[in-house]
Amino acid sequence: MTSHDDSDLPAPGRPVVLEPLAPGLWTLILGLCVAVLAPLFGFLVGTTFGAGTGAEMMSPLHLGLFVGVVIGGLGVAVAISGGWRLLRRSHEDQATSESDPD
Questions:
Q1: Which of 65, 77, 80, 89 stands 20 to 30 A from 29 (CA)?
Q2: SS3 for 37?
Q3: Closest by alpha carbon to 39, among 59, 63, 21, 23?
Q4: Of residues 7 and 58, more confidently modeled
Q5: Is the confidence at residue 58, as pLDDT, over 90?
């Protein structure tokens, strides 16, 4: 029989320190993704419904693109709010580091 010896284990390395992301970064990324992709998906949905008959005031193609642009605008608003939070946090961190002599 072999006995379990601790000398077979590798030496412990440096500890892993997980630092959280700054508040607002994920909001900024999500808002930018929605702002970029929503008009494209709106155009895609509009083209799947077709160009319309011409008797309607707005064809499905235009309606899909319009809805995509509106949702994209909401994505821009979300991205701006995330960027504002991120900017405010960085200013708070700078003010804290300037007032703290350590």
A1: 65
A2: helix
A3: 63
A4: 58
A5: no
Measure the CA dihedral 77/83/88/90, to 10°: 180
Q: Is 64 exposed, middle or buried (0-12, 13-18, 19+ CB in 10 A)?
A: buried
Q: Cα separations (Å) of 49 from 38, 56, 59, 70, 77?
A: 17, 13, 9, 19, 28
Of 33, 29, 45, 44, the closest CA to residue 72 belongs to 33
Query: Do residues 83 and 28 touch, judged by C-beta distance below 8 A?
Result: yes
Q: What is the pLDDT of residues 10-47, one digit of tens each?
A: 667 887 788 888 889 999 999 999 999 999 999 999 88
Whether 82 contacts 22, CB under 8 Å: no
